[in-house]
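Researcher: Re-running this chain for the archive, since the previous output was lost when a drive failed. Same request as before.
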Amino acid sequence: MIVYIISFSLGWGAIPWLVMSEIFPARARGIASGIATLVNWTCAFIVTLTFVQMSDAFSHQGAFWFYAGVCFLGIVFVFFVVPETKGRTLEEIECYFEGRNPSKEDF
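Model: Regenerated structure tokens:
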């Protein structure tokens, strides 16, 4: 379990904090950050809560493979759904999510 916690902290653990700082517009950042934090901690709680039962049912290796599969689904989600924000301003990202092209008056 300690290996999982360390691996999660170095990998997926930081993703919600990075994503919410880049994609949420300023007017929604407070409530959206709160929701993202709630989801992040809820998922961490679920992993902690279910680990013992999953280890008993599937063995330690089976539990880790299950969690690895969930992480793989997360990778697929990020690859296909989360937009690339490198080199974009917050205004450009906001226009992207609103489905419109950025114009000069947006800046």
